[in-house]
Write a structure and sequence with these properties.
Layout: H1 2-5, H2 15-43, H3 48-59, H4 62-70, H5 76-105, H6 110-123, H7 128-145, H8 148-170, H9 174-194
Length: 206
């Protein structure tokens, strides 16, 4: 969130909606995951991770889409910011769930919980936050342009996010995660760099 705000882009959205998006993104995403992912993993057979990725990436977009419907103007920078916020909220609650599961399975081993929290805390910006930020920005761009080409790009970005998410859940090891993190953060940074910046000396919203 701090990195995106530091780009000094044209956000046109305040701190209140951002906090609400982070909260809703976490709650809606985790609830949807809990209700739908078990059935998806049973019905998809050899493609359970694809179903999980589709569910989570769609659920994380609910809050940004609500903001887009109520926003006065859908600047892509605003979509980038609310997307990162929604991904952050989801990642926070999901990490709490993973930490609780590890705590119970390890018989109260706080060291094991610390390892999970540290790993997910480091990797979350390169996963949920980056993927949802990119997809939400593409959706806001499509809503502003209102062309088939922009809508097609938004769909492609969503497919890319689902593909990265599926790959992330399917592989293991620090090397694989490192490669995916570089790709995800590289896309996020490149997109933020290409967006028009505000006037020199202007500060980002509080």
């Amino acid at each position: 969130m701090t990195f995106v705000l530091g780009r000094r882009l044209d956000y046109s959205i305040g701190a209140g909606p951002i906090a609400l998006v982070a909260f809703l993104g976490g709650v809606v995403g985790v609830v949807a995951a809990g209700l739908l992912e078990f059935d998806a993993m049973r019905s998809l057979g050899t493609l359970p991770m694809l179903g999980v990725a589709l569910i989570e990436e769609s659920a994380k977009l609910v809050a940004p889409l609500l903001v887009l419907l109520t926003a006065r103007r859908g600047h892509p920078a605003g979509g980038l910011l609310v997307g990162v916020a929604s991904g952050a909220g989801f990642a926070a609650l999901e990490t709490m769930g993973y930490g609780f599961v590890v705590l119970v399975r390890s018989g109260g081993d706080l060291g094991a919980v610390d390892d999970v929290l540290l790993l997910r805390g480091v990797l979350s910006p390169a996963a949920h936050m980056a993927w949802t930020g990119l997809t939400a920005a593409a959706l806001w761009y499509a809503a502003r342009r209102r062309t088939r080409r922009a809508a097609g790009r938004a769909l492609l970005v969503f497919v890319l996010a689902v593909a990265l998410h599926t790959t992330w859940d399917s592989v293991g090891g620090f090397v694989a995660y490192g490669v995916l993190a570089v790709v995800s953060l590289g896309l996020l940074t490149g997109f933020a760099h290409r967006l028009p910046h505000g006037a020199p000396g202007t500060a980002p919203p509080a």
